[in-house]
Amino acid sequence: MAREVGGTTISAGTLFVIGLILFLFPEPATSTLGVFLMALGVLLYFMSW
């Protein structure tokens, strides 16, 4: 399922993959942002389910 966010369409899977990629970088800021995006992707997935 895709969700319209700020004029663009972002799917929950896309958010999860981007979050996972950011999580794998050793920088603490990107890891934190990655965890946030993964959680948001999972939340959107279950909301659309």
Folded structure, characterized:
The chain has 49 residues and is an alpha+beta fold. Helix content is 69%, strand content 16%. It contains two helices and two strands, in the order ββαα. Strands 1-2 form a two-stranded antiparallel sheet. A hairpin with a 2-residue loop joins β1 and β2. The model has no long low-confidence stretch (mean pLDDT 84). Keywords: Membrane, Transmembrane, Transmembrane helix.
Could you name the key traits of this structure?
single chain, 49 residues, alpha+beta, two-stranded antiparallel ribbon, 2 strands, elongated
Task: Give the secondary structure arrangement, pairings included.
Blueprint: E1 2-5, E2 8-11, H1 12-24, H2 28-48
Antiparallel strand pairs: 1-2
In N-to-C order, the SSE pattern is: EEHH
Structural class comes to alpha+beta
Output the strand order for the largest sheet: 1-2
How many β-strand runs?
2
Question: pLDDT below 50 for ≥5 consecutive residues: which ranges?
Answer: none
Euclidean distance between termini CA atoms: 8 Å
- Morphology: elongated
Bin the helical content.
55-70%
Strand content of the residues, in percent?
A: 15-25%
What profile does the largest beta sheet have? 2 strands, antiparallel
Mean of all residue-level pLDDT scores: 84
* CA radius of gyration: 11 Å
DSSP summary: helix tally? 2
